[in-house]
Design brief:
alpha/beta; Rossmann fold; 2 domains; 8-stranded mixed sheet; two-stranded antiparallel sheet; globular; binds 5-O-phosphono-beta-D-ribofuranosylamine
């Protein structure tokens, strides 16, 4: 059973998706710890409801990033964590932390990486006038929003979309790709080779989730 820690800073809807997926016993992984960088993160209540221990580690309580990262590293090691899932974690983790946990940290990002790294992704997608966007679960590298891609989700952009309506549609798919990514890692079939992810006996489509509207729109436009 894979021992997983989820790191959050906010509402924790992705944390909830991971808790739901692991709570049934179908995915051979257990969330044993939730770490929040803020004491008011809504996700903490989700963890408590699920009976998962929580820790609040606030950057402002540490002299610098190195000290903050070391505090997190210490908690993760004490709990014998195998895999770290960043889920709306709004702190940059330093190079030495990432290197200590290399290929054992996943992140979810609300765009089709490598496009639209950074913040405000949905507003930027709308500004660029694109008909499609999505979300990505990837292994973390020291560079922000970079690293081998594990699973992606495809989401249509609609003419009347605002950044908020698009965010909500992408979030629906985020809640499907993160459990999928965790299940793949927990299955032991995932290997990171250089900057690519290899999956033993990979089936077509295993690393891809599409929003249901994509299929409806494709049918309507063909
Ligand atoms: C998600 O959009 C995730 O992709 C991004 O931060 C947001 C977190 O949302 N990294 P939640 O806290 O999981 O609801």
């Amino acid at each position: 059973m894979l021992r997983v820690a989820v790191l959050i800073s906010g509402t924790g809807t992705n944390l909830q998706a991971l808790l739901d997926a692991t709570g049934t016993g179908v995915v051979p992984a257990r969330i044993v710890l939730v770490v929040s960088s803020r004491e008011d993160a809504g996700g903490l209540a989700r963890a408590e409801r699920a009976g998962v221990p929580t820790a609040v580690v606030r950057p402002e309580d540490y002299a610098d990033r190195e000290a903050f990262d070391l505090a997190i590293d210490d908690i993760l090691r004490r709990q014998e964590i195998d895999l770290v899932c960043l889920a709306g974690w709004m702190r940059i983790l330093g190079r030495s932390f990432v290197e200590r946990w290399i290929d054992r940290i996943l992140n979810i990002h609300p765009s089709l990486l490598p496009a639209f790294r950074g913040l405000e992704t949905h507003a930027r997608v709308l500004e660029a006038g694109l008909p499609v966007t999505g979300c990505t679960v990837h292994f973390v590298r020291p560079e922000i929003d970079a690293g081998p891609v594990l699973v992606q989700g495809i989401v249509p952009v609609l003419p009347q979309d605002t950044a908020e309506s698009l965010r909500l549609r992408v979030l629906e798919v985020e809640h499907r790709i993160y459990p999928r990514a965790l299940a793949l890692v927990a299955s032991g079939r995932v290997r990171v080779e250089g900057e690519k992810v290899q999956i033993a006996d990979e089936r077509p489509g295993e690393r891809l989730v599409v929003h249901p509207l994509v299929l409806a729109l494709a049918a309507a436009s063909s």
